[in-house]
Write a structure and sequence with these properties.
Aspartate Aminotransferase, domain 2, binds pyridoxal-5'-phosphate, 12 strands, globular, alpha/beta, Aspartate Aminotransferase, domain 1
């Protein structure tokens, strides 16, 4: 049969039906699975059989979620985690040894930066950062101990775009493991494996769940690397719960239609902001004014749900803007049905020094909006009245 399209796989990739012939997948809330007899028990533990033993290792609901994401990302295999950060942590920890070195883009999720700067040094794992637009100087950062190259695109919160194809070629040349956190794009908008990534990480908490209800993470990619991650994780125990896996499999059925609307609304919000007199600048990957507009068009299907902008008048005006917002949520999450406004300088990136913040393009007046699925007019009206008050 012909290879099915993204939307179809998202819906039709499903667990085998039980004797009850349920139409949609049931939840397997069980910590362990039983053996037929002593031989079955021995063979299962000897890994002579591909079966569920214990939900820390695998569970039908996690397997269904993993299979869907593998199809969406074009990956061979995967492992599902209890949160995005447990996916990031376990992926690195499984693959690295003491003395190893990571090369990473500077603009990355705040907790991933803390992992590199506060946790990994305990095990003598070091890192060097590069600026997203400065791939020409990457060579200088590589040492004989460099094992992983890591990046996110679009970045958080500045929505800068990294040239994934160029990074893929560089990674191949230097025999590095290329890992991309694809959370801001979702597999619907961008598939980093096509550009040379070996592993792709997601926080399932964001667009994948899409309704702000569960925490989850997943790593997918080359089977040999996933096997190492699986072995590390079945010992250390960061597995996703079967219930959350079930929620996510269900959410993925609507990922395409949801993300289409997120992007449509976000582009409308970005265009509105571009014409507003209280705004210094707006950044959205699919606005023509975005510095990497062409690259964004090349590697992404649409611009994503996040818009960044700066209000005129710095921190004071920013504070007034947030205090005047009436419907949008003041929260730190993103990729939710509900639109969310965040002030990165005082929240998600407050642990960074001012200098570090400016390196990532985070100014005091910068606002990040995760545009949700409310009617675009209502979202814009709320932003508009708040801008009028600053
Ligand atoms: C939210 C996020 C994470 C962490 O995910 P959690 O599910 O909150 O642990 C990692 N990377 C990016 C880009 C994120 O936005």
């Amino acid at each position: 049969m012909k290879k099915k399209k993204f939307e179809t796989e998202a819906i039709r990739t499903q667990l085998e039906r039980s004797k009850f012939l349920e139409h949609s997948s049931p939840i397997y809330l069980t910590s362990s699975f039983i053996f037929e007899d002593s031989e079955d028990m021995r063979a299962s533990f000897a890994e002579e059989k591909d079966r569920n033993i214990y939900s820390r290792y695998s569970n039908p609901n996690s397997s269904e979620f993993i299979e869907k994401v593998c199809k969406m990302e074009g990956a061979e295999d995967g492992f599902a985690f209890s949160s995005g950060m447990s996916a990031v942590f376990s992926t690195f920890a499984a693959l690295l040894n003491s003395g190893d070195h990571i090369v990473s883009a500077r603009s990355i999720f705040g907790s991933t930066h803390s992992l590199f700067t506060q946790v990994f040094p305990k095990w003598n794992i070091s890192h060097s950062y590069f600026k997203i637009g400065d791939l020409d100087n990457l060579e200088k950062l590589i040492t004989p101990k460099t094992k992983i190259i890591f990046a996110e695109s679009p970045t958080n919160p500045g929505v800068d775009i990294l040239d994934l194809g160029a990074l893929g070629r560089f990674s191949k040349k230097h025999k590095l493991i290329m890992i991309v956190d694809n959370c801001f794009a979702s597999p619907y908008l961008q598939q980093p494996i096509k550009f040379g990534a070996d592993l792709v990480i997601h926080s399932g908490t964001k667009l994948m769940d899409g309704q702000g209800r569960v925490l989850a993470g997943i790593t997918v990619g080359k089977a040999a690397l996933i096997d190492q991650i699986y072995r590390y994780s079945r010992i250390t125990g960061p597995a996703l719960s079967p219930f959350n896996a079930w929620v996510l499999s269900k959410s993925l059925e609507t990922l395409g239609v949801r993300v289409d609307r997120h992007c449509e609304n976000a582009l409308k919000v970005a265009r509105f902001l571009e014409g507003n007199k209280s705004v210094n600048w707006v950044k959205y990957p699919f606005l023509r004014s975005h510095p990497q507009y062409k690259l964004a068009k090349k590697q992404m299907k649409a611009g994503g749900c996040v818009v960044a902008f700066e209000v005129k008048g710095g921190r004071r005006a920013g504070k007034k803007f947030f205090d005047s917002i009436s419907m949008l949520s003041l929260s730190a999450n993103l990729g939710d049905t509900r639109s969310i406004v965040t002030h990165p300088a005082s929240t998600t990136h407050s642990k960074l020094s001012e200098e570090e913040r400016l390196e990532c393009g985070i100014t005091d007046g910068m606002v990040r909006i995760s545009v949700g699925l409310e009617h675009a007019e209502d979202i814009i009206n709320d932003i508009s009245q708040a801008l009028d008050r600053i």
